[in-house]
Amino acid sequence: MIEIRRNTARALADDQLQRNLAHALGHTLQARDRAVGEVEDWEQLRRYARQVKAHTLARLDRYLGQLEGRVKEQGGEVIWARDAQEACRFIVELAGRKGVREVVKSKTMAGEEIHLNQALEQAGIVPVESDLGEYLVQLEGVPPSHIIAPALHLSRGDAARLMHEKVGMELTEDVQRITAEARRQLRRRFLEAGMGISGVNFAVAESGTLVVVENEGNARLSVSAPPIHVAVMGLEKVVPRVEDLAVLLKVLIRSATGQSVSSYINFLNGPRREGEIDGPDEFYLVLIDNGRSRILADEHLRETLYCLRCGACQNVCPVYQRIGGHAYESTYQGPIGAILTPQLLSLQEAPEHPFASSLCGACQEVCPVGIEIPRILLELRGRAKKRSNAGSKLEAFAWRLWSLLMTHPRLYSATSAFLRHPLRVLLHLGLTPPPLNRWTVSRHLPAVPAAPFRSRFPAD
Question: I want to staple 432 with a disulfide (CB 3.0 to 4.6 A). Which of 145, 218, 235, 437 is the partner?
Answer without folding.
Answer: 437
